[in-house]
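Protocol step 4 of 5: obtain the predicted structure for the target chain.
Materials: sequence only (see below). No template structures provided, no constraints applied. The aim of this step is simply to have a reference model before the mutagenesis design in step 5. Sequence pasted as it appears in the construct record:
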Amino acid sequence: MDDYDWNAPPPEYPWQMKLVAWSPYADQPEAERRRSLARRMFESERKSRADGVESWPGLFWDERAGLFRFGDGGFALSGEHADWRRLKVIGCFSEWGM
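Step 4 output (structure tokens):
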């Protein structure tokens, strides 16, 4: 039926998932999928914090730069980019089902 290996371990990062033909992201290059995911995560976190909820307590909002940073001041997430390794470590992908 399809060539997906259901017994394979899950991908390390969400943009490495094999996309099915009907997926709206199936024709996007990997870089665009990463940007799209970063944008959605960024907008979701901004909205959550505007509603008074912190989804990821390990992050803080840098008003001057307009992005999220880790507690040590390192870059975490913007509307275009993300530090995927560190976000995975603090469990950000679990909320996105990844």
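Step 4 remarks: Helices lie at 30-50, 84-89. Strands lie at 59-62, 67-70, 75-77.
Proceed to step 5.
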